[in-house]
Structure formats: C-alpha cells, structure tokens
C-alpha cells in the first residue's frame, strides 16, 4: 500500500497532448506550459499535428517537441494522482475516460463542458472541474485536497469506469437508460442508485423498462457482474503437515461464512489421502495433482471469477477479513491485494479493521 502511494505521488498532475498554435482550444492549450515545473507537475505538448504544422509552428515548438518525446503517455497517467483534461477541438475528450481507467483523478479545464451522463452521475465525487480563466491556480487547488479525499475519489473513478464506461456495450446501454429516464421521469430510479460506491449496472437495468422488456439482458449482466463481485479461494495443500484442524476451519467456517466467496478450490496431492471432512460440494472443489502439475491445474478456464485469493492451509483469516480484503480489491480490481502477516486486526470498539 505504501509503495503504491509513493508510486502515485511521483507526479501530482500530468498532461501529454497537442498544443494548438491557432484556432479552437489554442487559448487554453497554449498556456498549459505555465503549470509545468519539471518535478511533480509534468505538462508536455507538441506542435506536430495536422498537415500544416511546420508552417504554423512558433519558437517554442522545437523545445516542446523534444520534451514531449521524453515521457511515455501511459506511464505518466499510471504514476499520477491527477490527470489534466483541457479543452480540445472536439466536444469531448478520450483523455477523460483514460484517466478514469487508470484511477487518475481527471482535472477538467473546459468551461461549460457537460460531463458524460451528467444528469445521473455525480462527478463531484471523482473529478475536479477547474476554471480555464484561473489556470495558474489549478495546482495550488489540487495540493489542498486531503489524502483521504484523494483515495475516495480514485476509488470512485475506477468504480464508475468499470460500471458505465469499460466497454462500448456498457456505454450504449447506459445511454439508452438515460434516454429512457428522460422519456419516463415518473419511472426514473433514484439518483443515489447510479452513484453507489460500486454501482451494479445489472440492478439498474433490472428495474428499468429495458430490463422488463428483455429479461435476457438482465441475465447477461447479472452473470457478468457476479463474476466481478465474488472471489474464488484456492488452497494449495502440499504435504501431510498442511492437514490440520485449521484447514477444516478455514474451508468449513471462514470461507463458507464469507459473503463474497463463490467457491473454494483445494489443490490436493495425489500421494495424500483425502480426509473425511473434505467432501466435494457446490462450494468446495478438489483438484488432485502431482508435484509438477499442481500450479497448472488452476487457470482462467477452471475458475468462475476474476478475483482469485491464494491461501495457505495454515491461514488464520476469518470470514470478516476475507470480506474486507475483497472490498478493497473491488475498488482496485487491476491490482494485487493481499494480507501481510500480523499487519491487520479488527478493532472491536471502532468496529473496523
């Protein structure tokens, strides 16, 4: 966690894109270089775009282009807390969705822009809308945002992206739902449903007229979202010393008691007899293996969920701790989430980990 924080804090604010020397968007883009400090604020622009860029370049273009080539676009976004989304030449910006996908909080510099699905999604929870006329105050404003608020906004960015923008199908479906709510406001869902911490699109569709008319749509989305909202536990047993009373507790009580555990897969060596308590059920699956193949038995074709928790047979974690770990993973599904030994505990007074 601290390593990820240090990585993220490498840059406060980043931007890499075109600089327009004339026309729409040039007023804002030409001034972005004033934010660049070469340290924690990296703003890179290039004049190399369009057929006539050589005819229209100014004295600053050569220096800008050299600096522009010194940084990788995706690496910048992956290592930044905030990503600048300034006005361009079009009505929208692909950069906005890319920032959400990276968990980089978008800083929108485009007065009077309407953000995607603005009538339903509360963008104040995960984006900063700055004033183009106050450009030079932008970085100071960002430095005033607390770490706690940044963590909440980043988690919200990832949740909204995964739910509404992670595929063309989801964008189209959300667009249809927005149109439906405009046409039938008396049937509209309450605003908070769209802005839950991890909003389930399947639940939104089910309650809409789209879902009523086409139940197959509900089934497809529910199957997709169950995959995202549960985990598979994989327990590797290698020797007889792993077969202890704790193994029975781990599978029978801790994992079975978790709200999000879809299945417990136990990888068991062929040379070791199965204990009487380890019986295959819809929840417990046993894969017999030899020493050389035990890690090849478990892959994407044998698992039901995207989230997989690798467990030692000696793990002392409880059902509540599994649920807590999974809730962290759902906020950051592209990262490895795990428990460090003796690094966490449940505070009975505060009722939290």
TrEMBL record:
<dbReference type="GO" id="GO:0005789">
    <property type="term" value="C:endoplasmic reticulum membrane"/>
</dbReference>
<keyword id="KW-0472">Membrane</keyword>
<protein>
    <recommendedName>
        <fullName>Exostosin GT47 domain-containing protein</fullName>
    </recommendedName>
</protein>
<dbReference type="Pfam" id="PF03016">
    <property type="entry name" value="Exostosin_GT47"/>
</dbReference>
<dbReference type="GO" id="GO:0015012">
    <property type="term" value="P:heparan sulfate proteoglycan biosynthetic process"/>
</dbReference>
<dbReference type="GO" id="GO:0015020">
    <property type="term" value="F:glucuronosyltransferase activity"/>
</dbReference>
<comment type="similarity">
    <text>Belongs to the glycosyltransferase 47 family.</text>
</comment>
<dbReference type="InterPro" id="IPR004263">
    <property type="entry name" value="Exostosin"/>
</dbReference>
<feature type="domain" description="Glycosyl transferase 64">
    <location>
        <begin position="231"/>
        <end position="352"/>
    </location>
</feature>
<dbReference type="GO" id="GO:0008375">
    <property type="term" value="F:acetylglucosaminyltransferase activity"/>
</dbReference>
<dbReference type="InterPro" id="IPR029044">
    <property type="entry name" value="Nucleotide-diphossugar_trans"/>
</dbReference>
<dbReference type="Pfam" id="PF09258">
    <property type="entry name" value="Glyco_transf_64"/>
</dbReference>
<feature type="domain" description="Exostosin GT47">
    <location>
        <begin position="3"/>
        <end position="144"/>
    </location>
</feature>
<keyword id="KW-1133">Transmembrane helix</keyword>
<dbReference type="InterPro" id="IPR015338">
    <property type="entry name" value="GT64_dom"/>
</dbReference>
<keyword id="KW-0256">Endoplasmic reticulum</keyword>
<keyword id="KW-1015">Disulfide bond</keyword>
<dbReference type="GO" id="GO:0005794">
    <property type="term" value="C:Golgi apparatus"/>
</dbReference>
<keyword id="KW-0808">Transferase</keyword>
<keyword id="KW-0812">Transmembrane</keyword>
<dbReference type="InterPro" id="IPR040911">
    <property type="entry name" value="Exostosin_GT47"/>
</dbReference>
